[in-house]
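Before a colleague's protein record goes any further, I have to sign it off. I want your independent view on whether this chain really folds as the tokens say. The record follows directly below this note.
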Amino acid sequence: MNKTTRPKVRIHNMATDEVIDREMDDQEFAAYEAELAANAAEQAELVAKQNAKAAILDRIGLTADELKTILG
């Protein structure tokens, strides 16, 4: 069974100009996946808030631009 390819990590030693590219280790990959999950949850929350605002504006019959004009 093939191992899933993981994102690469680039390490650049500025003193020697040596560049090492390697796959993430287990700890780095777990942190990477946790960050992806957190970003997806944050994006879903933003979309839900935008949809709720749009629903409210639709109920009162205003566009976002009209509301901005009213609120100054």
The chain is about 60% helix and 15% strand.
